[in-house]
């Protein structure tokens, strides 16, 4: 039975994201086999694990891009699995950045960042423009406001995509391997933008293959394999003394 969206106010001492026994199948193939964890406000949580282990599916379930098969996901007081889910309310709280930045090619960087607040939230154009310029500054793209995506490097486009997500003023940011498609020299600038965001106190849930970055930035690491969380812990313990053979094998391949 679906639990109705809780109308009580969410308070910051409660988890900002909560997953309880989340299962997801595509047909008969069970991709997530009972995943539970919490993310607290201001925390930076990294999910790592082999390709195909269900990391993207997990992230997409949190943003209701993929419906759950069973279990519960809450973001603040929004019950994501509620059939009456207000997707717009959820998307205002949860920003998401993907590997593919998918900017509108015929819009400038500034226009890309301004689009959703204006066309989805119908906010005042002048205010949105001011915010968009500030966000582009924050991701170090001053001077690129009027550039089109085709005139920007992959790393610059991905930073526009980050600014675009932030323009909705989300409470939580989800990142799914956002540097995986980038040239090595532009990876750093994107990781720096995420780091600064995290240092500003943004709650971040990241899927990443950048182990050094995860070690540096994360408050907590989850290692997934074949749809389950195999092991988790603070980065110090996780990287220096992984206890599960699957974690050890994975780390031996990527470190
Ligand atoms: P990861 O991000 O860890 O690489 P994914 O969540 O993308 O893993 O995928 C986990 C498994 O689910 C893979 O075997 C993938 O082929 C499968 N899968 C993902 N999305 C779909 C879908 N829409 N339909 C069917 N199978 C899917
Ligand atoms: Mg993935």
From TrEMBL:
Residue ranges of every copy of the ABC transporter domain listed in the record: 17-251
Gene Ontology molecular function terms on file: ABC-type amino acid transporter activity; ATP binding; ATP hydrolysis activity
Subcellular location: Cell membrane
CDD domains: ABC_HisP_GlnQ (cd03262)
SUPFAM superfamilies hit by this protein: P-loop containing nucleoside triphosphate hydrolases (SSF52540)
Recorded topology in the membrane: Peripheral membrane protein
Entries under PROSITE patterns matching the protein: ABC_TRANSPORTER_1 (PS00211), ABC_TRANSPORTER_2 (PS50893)
Keyword line: Amino-acid transport, ATP-binding, Cell membrane, Membrane, Nucleotide-binding, Transport
GO cellular component, one term: plasma membrane
Keyword Amino-acid biosynthesis found: no
Pfam annotation, one family: ABC_tran
Main localization, broad class: membrane
Protein family per UniProt: Belongs to the ABC transporter superfamily.
Name of the protein described by the UniProt record: Amino acid ABC transporter ATP-binding protein
Upper lineage: Bacteria, Pseudomonadati, Pseudomonadota, Alphaproteobacteria, Hyphomicrobiales
């Amino acid at each position: 039975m679906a639990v109705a969206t809780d109308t009580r106010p969410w308070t910051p001492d409660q988890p900002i994201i909560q997953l309880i026994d989340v299962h997801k199948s595509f047909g008969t193939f069970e991709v997530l086999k009972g995943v539970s964890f919490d993310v607290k406000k201001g925390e930076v949580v990294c999910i790592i694990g082999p390709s195909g282990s269900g990391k993207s599916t997990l992230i997409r379930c949190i943003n209701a891009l993929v419906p759950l098969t069973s279990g519960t996901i809450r973001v603040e007081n929004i019950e994501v699995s509620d059939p009456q889910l207000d997707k717009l309310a959820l998307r205002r709280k949860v920003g998401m950045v993907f590997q593919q930045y998918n900017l509108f090619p015929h819009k400038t960087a500034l226009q890309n960042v301004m689009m959703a607040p204006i066309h989805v939230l119908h906010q005042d154009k002048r205010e949105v423009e001011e915010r968009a310029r500030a966000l582009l500054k924050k991701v170090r793209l001053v001077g690129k406001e009027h550039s089109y995506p085709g005139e920007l490097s992959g790393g610059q486009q991905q930073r526009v995509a980050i600014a675009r997500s932030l323009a909705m003023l989300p409470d939580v940011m989800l990142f799914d391997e956002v540097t995986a498609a980038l040239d090595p020299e532009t990876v750093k600038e994107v990781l720096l933008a995420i780091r600064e965001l995290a240092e500003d106190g943004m709650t971040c849930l990241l899927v990443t293959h950048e182990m050094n970055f995860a070690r540096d930035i994360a408050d907590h690491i989850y290692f997934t394999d074949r749809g389950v969380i195999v092991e988790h812990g603070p980065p110090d313990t996780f990287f220096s003394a992984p206890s599960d053979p699957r974690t050890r094998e994975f780390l031996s391949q990527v470190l």
